[in-house]
Amino acid sequence: MLLAVEDLNVYYGHIHAVKDVSFAIESGEIVALVGSNGAGKSSTIKAVCGLVKPRRGKIMMRDSDITGMRSESIVRVGIGYVPEGRRVFPQMSVLENLMLGAYARRDKSTLAQELETIYGYFPILAQRRNQLAAGLSGGEQQMLALGRALMTRPRLLVLDEPSLGLAPIIVKQVFALLQRLNREEGLAILLVEQNAYAALRIAHRGIVLETGQVRLHGKAADMVKDPEVQALYLGGSSDSPVSSPIDSGTLQQNDLLKTDAKSAVNHQVEK
Hints:
- This protein is α/β, with parallel strands linked by helices.
- About 40% of the residues lie in helices and about 25% in strands.
- β7 (about 155-160), α7 and β8 form a beta-alpha-beta unit.
- The protein is globular, with a radius of gyration of 18 Å.
């Protein structure tokens, strides 16, 4: 067992946001945590990543009890985090943002090699390594946030709403990369996503939260076909930016850049 969450409870003042949530993630597994706004998805993963302190419950990473640990200590046990809205440092360069991902690492002997690996995943970041992050498009900033998390050398990658604010074709490409990381690197992924269909299409298992509690859980492929899940969480349809199996080998950086540029032009015309 890579990660085990047992009877997790998170409060914000008197608001009980997460109620006795339990789940586990195996090594090499993608788990999608889905549900509507306010369901407790982000609060759950923030507790896992040390950004909020649970009132009750236990979080284990392998044999380590990480319940209530500080976030920098949780990074050291192997959990990388990509926050909602990307949260890059706009006045720092692409390279500086990436290097921040390695800040908490004790062993930094392989940083140069790992940077080249990140640039292999995201060639545009290599081209813009000295450019300020503020000048990147939304899709490029999402690449940068992913790259920064990968620089922590995680065993488990946790992502909060990675599709937020991105064009559908870019969402498809981001999800393709997650599949590639899982398939080629064996990276375990905990994916929080309001776009439930897109998340379940790439996941091995799914967990549905509703008002802070686990409503449903099971194999993702079965959940996608379940009429109740379709009606309540998939809009009764399989129409989504990730509506078919993804071939990550077709992920093209130039296509992403063209789409981002086209989206920006269209936005200006509409204004």
